[in-house]
Sequence to fold (912 residues):
Amino acid sequence: MDKASRLVEDEVYEPSASPSSWQILWREIKRDKLALASLIFLGIVVAAVYGVSLILDQKQIVTVDLFALYQPPSSKFWLGTDYGGRDVFGQLIIGTRNSLSIGIIVTVLTGVIGILAGLISGYFGGTVDNVAMRVVDFFMILPTLMIVIAFVAAVPKYSVVSFSLIMTAFLWMGIARLIRSKTLQERELEYVKASRTLGSSHLKIMFTQVLPNLSSIIIVTMTLNLAANIGLESGLSFLGFGFPESTPSLGTLVSYARNPQTLEFRWWIWLPASLLILVLMLSINNVGQALKRATDARQRRG
Amino acid sequence: MGRKLTPRMLLPLLLTFMIVLSACTSGKGNEGAQPPGPTNTQNQTEGENKPKEEGLYSIEDFSNVKTNEGEPIKGGSITYGLVSDTPFEGILNYNFSSGAPDAAVLGWFDESLLAWDKNYVFTNDGAATYEVSEDGRTFTFTIRDNVNWHDGKPVTAEDWEFAHEVITHKDYDGPRYGSDFTNIEGVLEYREGKADKISGIKVLSDKKLQITYIKSTPSLLTGSIWTYPLAKHIFGDMEIAKMSSSSAVREKPIGFGPFKVESIVPGESVVYTKNADYWRGEPNLDKVVLKVINPTTVVQQLKSGGVDLVDSFPIDQFPDNANMSNVEYLGVIDRAYTYIGFKLGKWDEENKVVAPDPNAKMADVNLRRAMWHAVDNDQVGKRFYHGLRWNATTLIPPSHPEFHDASNPGIAYDVEKANQILDEAGYKKNGEFRTKPDGSELVINFLSMTGGDIAEPLARYYVQSWNAIGLNVNLELVEFNTFYDRIGNNGKDDPNVDVYQGAWTVGIDVDPAGLYGRDALYNFSRYASEENDRLLAEGVSEKAFDVATRKAIYKEWQQFMIEEVPVFPTLYRSEIVPVNKRILNYAIGDGTGIYLYELAVTQDKPFVAE
Fold:
């Protein structure tokens, strides 16, 4: 009896309140060593890429140097040079920064648009829902990739921002659908009705009461979307529809491997970028999977 | 093949990866001393292509003739690779086709009635011989008695006449009709339907044909005569408009060359068997298989013996594979050059002439000359192309050794000189960049092509070089077709293009009027002057029949173009082709005196790389 009550004290009563969703997420990551390592690795990469790219001079990196074509890695060029005599390490850093920036911007923008659309249509339902979902349907049946490619070809000069906006325009529907379906469930719950009876405004209920209850699912979706969006930019650049070569990108570096000579004899041009993409994707996915488990009490490890 | 003829056709050259090129200047630094064209000398050592200095090669070290080692076996079969990432079109008759891939397919089973030497002048070594009349306008051709079509019917003078009648007919849908044909007496009357026959063409007997031309020019002897007959017993009853899509062109093509077509997989492969009745003699090989192979797999195919010969080889893959043990590399200077052009006017669609604009942005010759001085093409050739393309000096490439002026040094790389010219011409520096002499802003738009591995850094290098002398140059890269549309392939020049980088494959006739004449649509720089008109006209006049006089005229023209700089040549090119070591009697280039029927192998299976 005595022993049992001690146990109960230790495990249940010591935390003063029930854990917040953030704490659950964090605890889940801590329990999963792989996810923790991935998170730390991601932190280091992001810090390094954004930090180092502040020092690097992009103009100098994309300058063609006739006398340094295809140099293997050396103390001067840490990862060698490509067929234009351009430093691969510098391109890798700036390329990663561009890819990451696009991934983050697109994820945040699609998140904001998707959440707004999903919340409004799910919360109000009826005609609003119908109209919003038909708009979503319309966007979903568009051949997204083809349109992005056509846009990119039509816009003569595009930057990280314009590229992100183009991609955002076609990528917000998935998250909108998800949020809508969750909101539909949520609005039937007692607390929403109670709040409404007490006279809270729709806006207040949506954003301060329903939204926080969806936060964990939003975090998970957006984390997994981040990996996909980074991949999408690299993929387009690989196909030649992303950034021009004067703007370094991971996809461009990987696409150099389409030349059989480069693939066979000059690994330093494409291998680091390929590995980096692989490791980045895996890391983000590891973190995302851990977060996903955290949102479902039955799968939690912690 | 090397034996494909594009009679005086000046084709916009595809700067694509499938074109294999190479060549390097002999002595570094002296731009004048170009190698004197393809030679028949043997390669120094067997197949060892040693770089002279840090990865540099020179076309001089390549022979265009395969070294023969070992004894031929009887019969045998070889595989020929058509290096391309697209299927071949499949218009398999010289009278209707124009594409280079189709020409590679055609070369095995059909040929020109007249042969030509290494200066591209018609000789009497071919299936027909010719005689010229005193005034140089009337040609009498005699087809050899033993020249027969693959179905056994003789090739007759009527077949030759028939080819002319089809091409000049108004229903003809192929690409061959042009000034070569309008120069024949009576063609215009025939085309308009006023005459049943072309009055200038007379069939004298079964094997004798006489053609009378309106104007005698030296070009007649270098490709302006149509030398491909059309089998009248097959095509005679067909409607002219339907010929090019008929099965006699697409599926069961006919010729009189050393091999016959046995079967065709459209766009992919062709199987040939030997034509035992070939007029030069029975071919050594029993069978030839032609297949299309992708540029990315060509090296693997060569190493494993999957192909014995290829029509071309991607140059960027050469340095890494220079020591492939089972092949010998043949090399020849290509009839092509890369150049940078300046937009000096527009195309006058109504009168079909160029309309130079004296107020064009690039109208100042000093600006153009400074831009030539600013680029170091010697290093471009060495670094990007391992010396397999090299600094160009004049607008007649060394593939025409008789007319290329090797003593002309062109304009050398000299940044100080470039700056000095601009300073003196009044282009003052305002901050980082120079302004026009009147003080207004100068922004030059440079258009270049994508495609090919080196296209992007090369274009960027030129922009950097011009930035370095204080010129504000914007680069735009577009794909091949867009590029030629915008610089005026259809007469509508994009006014936003000031400078562009293009390339030409030149015809076998040296006459450059098709590229730089006043009435040439392909004169993309839209440059014209009376002096230029005079020199171009003199080059094809009757007095130019004397080679020394013609040389002097073109020497003057080359120098004149260097002074005027409407365009400037950047790189000369050459072609390198690997050949399996079991192959005997093979050569690339023109006028080698080695013919396909002599092709033989030393063993049944191709050599495989160690």
Summary: The longest helix of chain B spans residues 547-564. The CA atoms of residues 43 and 63 of chain B lie 5 Å apart. The interface with chain A takes residues 296-297, 299-300, 316-317, 320, 376, 379-380, 383-384, 453-454, 456-458, 460-461, 464, 476-477 of chain B (CB under 8 Å). The two ends of chain B are 27 Å apart (CA to CA).
